[in-house]
Design a protein that fits this description.
The protein has four helices and four strands. With about 140 residues, the chain is α+β, with helices and mostly antiparallel strands. It has one domain. It has a two-stranded antiparallel ribbon with strand order 1-2. It has a two-stranded antiparallel sheet with strand order 3-4. Strand 3 and strand 4 form a beta hairpin.
Length: about 140
């Protein structure tokens, strides 16, 4: 019976840890072995977690000065969580862009695919976090 009472806390620990793992993946820059391109760091710093809806894209030129911080206390079982980039150039960096933009600049830029790569890693992130929580629980017995 005690084990059954502990299941929700364990599930919540896995959910929170997996979201943190996904956020790490989404902010891992190319120089650090990730896929997120970095020139000034504004893109990865624009990642935001929300429990109310997808974060909105900020005005072009918005500077994100601090490292992303996620309040895992907001993450609860049965509640959705969104992670999204606020930087206006996030889609262009991820998917690429060929053509002339609204400012008249011409680009032939291939995408980095960092979003799809992180999404593809989600099952492995969840498995690793579940294993971590299981080992932590089993190790404490």
């Amino acid at each position: 019976m005690q084990w059954a009472r502990e299941v929700p806390a364990r599930l919540l620990a896995v959910k929170r840890g997996a979201i943190e793992g996904l956020a790490r993946d989404l902010t891992q820059t190319k120089p650090r072995g990730g896929r997120v391109p970095i020139k000034h760091g504004n893109l990865y710093r624009s990642l935001l977690m929300s429990t109310t809806g997808m974060p909105t894209i900020a005005a072009s030129g918005t500077e994100f000065k601090s490292e992303p911080v996620f309040n895992m206390g907001e993450v609860q079982l049965g509640r959705k969580v969104w992670l999204g980039y606020q930087a206006a150039h996030a889609a262009r960096q991820n998917y690429g862009f060929v053509g002339t933009d609204s400012l008249g600049r011409t680009y032939n830029q291939s995408g980095s695919g960092f979003l799809e790569a992180a999404i593809a890693n989600w099952p492995a992130i969840v498995r690793a976090e579940a294993e971590y929580v299981r080992n932590k629980v089993m190790g404490s017995k």
